Amino acid sequence: MAQTETVSVEPGFVERLRRTLDMIKFEHSIFAMPFALTGALLAWRSLNFNVDTPALKLLYIVLAMIGARSAAMTFNRILDARIDAKNPRTAMRHLPSGQLSQRFAWGFLIASSALFFLASALLNPLCLMLSPVALAIVLFYSYTKRFTSFAHLVLGASLGIAPSAAWIAVTGSLDLPIGFLSLAVMLWTAGFDIIYACQDTDFDRREGLFSIPARIGIANALILSRLFHVFTLISLTALSQSLSLSPWPVLPVAALLIYEHSLVKASDLSKVDMAFFTVNGFIGMTYFASMAIEVYRNV
């Protein structure tokens, strides 16, 4: 009997694109997007809402955010493919499992970077001038776990530049108050990334990778995460005060952060995904909605 030969069929472009968007968790753009939109909203307020083509600017800001985050996440997956293949938790990700090719991932990275530069150019000259610096920061994060336990803060800085970038996109300049929001986002991100990294503590130690949980242990890392989130709330309060707004939008963020930390214990990491993905998504959206109401109340 003749042996049947199995033929491997390369997935089409649309399927590869779908897999790529799944690989970079495109839906999690919601983490930083609300804070970028808050930055844009506060920038419009600083100009007394006297802004030309605000809808178009908003579109370019969203496109720039999508381009930068997509490039950063794709680069991270490319760079970490060999590491991910060794980790049982990540071995089935698209690149180590062969669901996507490195070539297609690199093509998507280049396209995402091009989208970011184009959107920056359409915003204003300062955005275009700073765009290589911003992209370098978000790409650099992927290297940091190889040499520093402060990788979480570098990731925080990558997301933290979003509100300031949106402010620059609207005003064409960088002003001090928006720095409080960037600082808050940086500390918030670093805090929840520490929680997420707790899952890989043993693996990171075994592979010689750097993270705060691997360095100081899960229990101490969770304490540090809480401390970062306390300073997140302080930074958000300072932002409201610097702009002569009520600090009440900080309250729902505080409640959600308390709930997030109640889900995770050193002895029980089973709810990390809920704390990391679900709760943090609500934090961004809730803060933006609350600030929008507060700004509207003070028009």
| Unreliably modeled segments | 1-8
Number of strands: 0
CATH topology: Tetracycline Repressor, domain 2
**Structural class, from secondary structure content?**
mainly alpha
Mean pLDDT reading: 92
What does the model show?
The protein is 73% helix and 0% strand. The chain has one domain: UbiA prenyltransferase (Tetracycline Repressor, domain 2, Orthogonal Bundle), CATH 1.10.357. It is built from 13 helices and no strands. Helix 6 packs antiparallel against helix 7, helix 7 runs antiparallel to helix 8 and helix 8 packs antiparallel against helix 13.
Briefly characterize the structure.
This protein is mostly helical.
Topology readout:
Elements: H1 13-23, H2 33-46, H3 54-79, H4 81-86, H5 102-123, H6 125-144, H7 151-171, H8 177-197, H9 201-207, H10 212-216, H11 218-242, H12 250-262, H13 272-297
Helix pairs in contact: 2-3, 2-7, 2-13, 3-5, 3-6, 3-7, 5-6, 6-7, 7-8, 8-11, 8-13, 11-12, 12-13
List the keywords.
299 residues; mainly alpha; Tetracycline Repressor, domain 2; 13 helices; 73% helix; 0% strand; globular; disordered N terminus
